[in-house]
Write a structure and sequence with these properties.
CATH architecture: Sandwich
Organism: Paenibacillus xylanivorans
Number of helices: 2
Distance between the termini: 10 Å
Protein name: AraC family transcriptional regulator
Number of domains: 1
Shape: globular
Largest sheet: 6 strands, antiparallel
Length: 139
């Protein structure tokens, strides 16, 4: 569902699922933030076992593989968007520095494949509501 980016002159494709069933993940050509607001999930993410209890966040890219083995009273919501949403224009550029494809690196690091990335970042109960507001700013 296209949304108007109020901060930049562009339209971005962002999908929101209010009752995520966790059945068809990951979404093709999308980065997906899944907010587990209650319950727990056990499964396998990229060939590693995971156990997730609310409040929690799952960060999936189209390259991830996930198999949900068990859900217990889970309530979850998801935001999915094309990786281009994280394209950014630097605040200041100099003659010596012109990035070819500037991106918000912190946001992308939640989804990039590397040996230390689990796809389930540690988020405290206090930080969870703030983390959850991040994608809502686009809708």
């Amino acid at each position: 569902m296209p949304q108007i980016d109020r901060h930049k002159d562009r339209t971005v494709n962002i999908e929101f699922v209010a009752a995520e069933d966790l059945e068809c993940l990951p979404y093709p050509e999308r980065l997906t933030l899944i907010f587990v607001t209650s319950g727990s999930i056990n499964g396998i993410l990229n060939e590693r076992p995971i156990a997730v209890s609310a409040p929690a966040v799952l960060c999936l890219s189209e390259e991830d593989t996930i198999q949900i083995l068990k859900k217990h009273n889970v309530s979850a919501q998801s935001f999915s968007y094309h990786p281009d949403v994280l394209n950014s224009v630097p605040i200041s550029e100099t003659e010596d520095y012109f990035p070819i494809h500037p991106k918000i690196q912190t946001g992308l690091s939640l989804f990039q494949n590397n040996p230390t990335r689990t796809g389930v970042p540690f988020v405290t109960e206090k930080a969870f509501p703030q983390f959850k507001m991040y994608p809502i700013r686009w809708t």
